[in-house]
């Protein structure tokens, strides 16, 4: 794999932004590292999102994502969005516009990343799990699959319990429910649509403080009949769990057959 520490200017944010990118490299003699490639000019791409207290470096620092992705032959884009909850903030930058519109266009202008829906996926942990689901449920025409690891998936409930943490993002947290920032609302919209529907993966440890939130979202997706794969096991909100589960996510992704 090639590893790129990329810094660039964002029109959406009005400041310089950062992302880590890993790209497939079909090496033959690299010791201890399996490599794969689809033999295409542009790579299947996973947008891998960080949590509330982290940044774009965290997946590389706390997991072996480079090694896991190498054997599958996919690119991984890991952007920084601060504490934005992947939202155009009421009192801050437009991070939703950045992550959903500007970032994919910029990344594809820099690197050979596929544009086709069936070759684009999103995943994340905690706040990033929310962001990944929000990307795929808002833009099911752009993302074939999304995965949430211990995600903050019931954001209207979470915000009402901690209003001071969210007022800079949403202003009035009572407006979240039933809005474009509510995953339950977005799931219902996808269900009602005649358009494409992304495959969803959700997991959460049974000792995680977000476990009940995840159960509510799981049950709602099942009621709607969405294509949801759900896994749970003993586990807390910590990196040992996420390092294990991101491997499951990568194996679950609906990657095309290699040529």
UniProtKB/TrEMBL annotation:
Q: Which GO terms describe its molecular function?
A: acyltransferase activity, transferring groups other than amino-acyl groups
Superkingdom to which the source organism belongs: Bacteria
Q: Where are the transmembrane segments?
A: none
Which named protein is this? Esterase family protein
* Organism taxonomic ancestry: Bacteria, Bacillati, Bacillota, Bacilli, Bacillales
